[in-house]
Amino acid sequence: MTEHRPFRxxxxxxxxxxxxxxxxxxxxxxxxxxxTRVRDAFERxxxxxxxxxxxxxxxxxxxxxxxxxxHDLPREEKLKLEVNEHQLGFVPMGTSLxxxxxxxxxxGLKPNAMENLTYHGERAPDDPKVLSGERFRxxxxxxxxxxxxxxxESQVAYHTMMSDLGYRILPVIARxxxxxADYFDDYFKDPSIVVRMVKYPAVGExxxxxxxxxxxxxxxxxxxxxxxxxxxxxxxxxxGEWLDHPPMDRGVIVNSGNMLKRWSNDRFRASPHRVxxxxxxxxxxxxxxxNPDLDDVIVPVESxxxxxxxxxxxxxxxxxxxxxxxxxxxxxxxxxxQAA
Length: 340
Ligand SMILES: O=C(O)CCC(=O)C(=O)O
Ligand SMILES: [Fe+2]
Prior knowledge:
Blueprint: E1 17-19, H1 21-24, H2 30-44, E2 47-51, H3 57-71, H4 75-79, E3 89-91, E4 115-120, H5 128-131, H6 151-176, E5 194-200, E6 211-216, E7 222-226, E8 233-236, E9 242-244, E10 252-256, H7 258-263, E11 273-276, E12 283-290, E13 297-298, E14 316-317, H8 318-329
Parallel strand pairs: 1-2
Antiparallel strand pairs: 2-10, 3-4, 4-5, 5-12, 6-11, 7-10, 7-12, 8-9, 8-11, 13-14
Bound molecules: 2-oxoglutaric acid and fe (ii) ion (FE2).
The site of 2-oxoglutaric acid (AKG) has 12 residues, from β5, β11 and β12.
């Protein structure tokens, strides 16, 4: 039975649905066409749904199954992987608050009703950036293969496939900003891609002071969210209404984060969103945050800096921006410090 939700579902103009198939298939003029529609979506809404992508959904189903397998492990097993200074590992229930990122009074009232495992792209133990101990560049924390057979592989396959999609979409975002198609290539040589593999455990009833993830904006470049097993994600309109996203089987929700907003000199939005607490049934999500290299210095693109709209931002290293974001994010409990 589908849960009754007392919210309006966003209409097409409030949450654009974009067919990315022609572009991914390499059709002529599809790049410019998609870039125009992505520009409109990021300028007006900050969110969109991609359909007709060429993702292998078995990989996504497997990653969701792996997530359930992980979250079903005994708590002691998960706590062995408790989140570290690199923001890698297990964030237990009740330890994350979207404090400091509230877009209304709802953030920070109660901790988010969720737990998650956060992981990055795999690094080799002898990677110089791992050996130097540099923050946010540690090794992933995985459970023992004996405790969760096949789990790690399911997540690495997901990370790899989604990263590939992210790379292929970079020219579209560059053209959406009216920059050369290869503009972003140099910035994604060693990207800081983060997956937050979340379980929102079912709660008994919907409350207005308890969320799966309270209102926030995302930190980075773009976020991709393959459709979850349950509704829950909402966006806030300029008029202040919270809307459910349109349901779309095998669709991928994509939104722009604060770093892309800054890069575009505020031409693109970083829109407020939240996840309602899950009623009756656990909800799983595989939030994929596609971000530039921590060492990249971000300067608003010249196409978005004009006499009428002068450049608002100084150059800023992405890693410094990210560390600051994390410091302001949750952190009523250090172990749970976790950026949205
Ligand atoms: O679970 C979702 O659908 C969205 C989660 C989210 O907004 C986030 O992790 O930043
Ligand atoms: Fe988010």
